[in-house]
Design goal:
By secondary structure, this protein is α/β, with parallel strands linked by helices. The protein has eleven helices and six strands. Helix 1 (about 35-55) packs across helix 4 and helix 2 packs across helix 3 (about 75-85). The longest helix is centred in the first third of the chain and has 23 residues, at about 35-55. The chain is elongated. It starts with 20 loop residues before the first strand and ends in an 18-residue tail after the last helix.
Length: about 280
């Protein structure tokens, strides 16, 4: 893809940009932490499925990377548990968020996964994708507004550990979503609230995601451009679920190409997006 280059003037740092903001997912987009999540999910579900097999006599079938991408990647933790269990025909009571990590409820399983993830996170450094950081610095130079929208309730911890929390003007995470009663991806709520906090219109905003549920949220929310990052050899699935552009890495796209998209392909008046939670809280 080749678009006209976006020019820069120090007197007017964004003289000709046709978009105002970029909202990033966190895990797998900014931070290289998706693999830690996938490992924690597999540890939790394999233990659960193995115990269930022993109790019921049904064959043990492990949790796979395909399961991770289809049912839990990008979703709020308890939603991911529900989606995977449903895929296996397993019924389990929801329980309460205060349930101790275990296997007696959806929440207990989710809390067990979170425990495993945090144990791993506490012993490792948080790596950043260099191409994403270069992209962010280019946006900052053009004074484009930046936000993070993630389903993770560990967003602050991860971004602080990576040293990038202060780069973003707003953050909407799993804690925010719970406080506001927002729906998780593939609903567009967390991205829409990020737009509201930044004071920008959805049709002048870019969403950057690596999860199928995330690009679906971008499509449902009618954002100006949804970029899918295919880190799992899933370009076609990301495109099918709503990504306008799909790349393997953000180094493959330029600000000029993004600006060209907004100039030529985005309607000046947005369509009717999916409705979201009507409230908001300050960033």
């Amino acid at each position: 893809m080749r678009g006209r280059p976006a020019t820069f003037s120090s007197d007017n740092p964004r003289p000709d940009l046709f978009f105002d903001a970029v909202i990033f997912d966190m895990d797998g987009v900014i931070t290289d932490t998706a693999s830690l999540h996938a490992a924690a999910w597999k540890e939790m579900f394999d233990d659960f499925l193995e115990a269930l097999s022993g109790e019921t006599g049904t064959p043990f079938s492990s949790f796979t990377q395909s399961d991770y991408l289809a049912y839990v990647d990008g979703r709020p933790r308890y939603d991911g548990v529900r989606a995977f269990l449903a895929s296996r025909g397993i019924a389990l009571a929801d329980g309460e968020p205060s349930d101790l990590p275990g296997s007696q409820s959806v929440c207990a399983l989710g809390n067990r996964k979170d425990q495993a993830f945090n144990q791993s996170l506490d012993t490792r450094e948080v790596s950043l994708f260099a191409s994403t950081m270069a992209f962010i610095e280019a946006l900052r130079a053009r004074q484009v507004k930046l936000g993070v929208a993630t389903s993770s309730k560990n967003g602050v911890k991860i971004l602080q550990k990576a040293g990038v929390l202060d780069l973003f003007e707003t953050r909407v995470d799993g804690v925010t979503a719970a406080e506001m009663g927002l729906q998780g991806k593939p609903a567009p709520d967390i991205f829409a609230i990020a737009c509201e906090r930044l004071g920008v219109m959805r049709h002048r905003t870019v969403v950057v995601e690596d999860a199928v549920s995330g690009v679906a949220a971008g499509a449902r929310g009618r954002f100006g451009l949804t970029i899918g990052i295919a880190r799992e050899d899933n370009r076609e699935e990301l495109k099918r679920r709503g990504a306008d552009m799909v790349v393997s890495d953000l180094s493959e796209i330029t600000l000029g190409e993004i600006d060209h998209w907004f100039e030529h392909f985005v309607r000046t008046r947005p369509g009717a997006p999916d409705s979201i939670h009507s409230g908001s809280i300050s960033s």
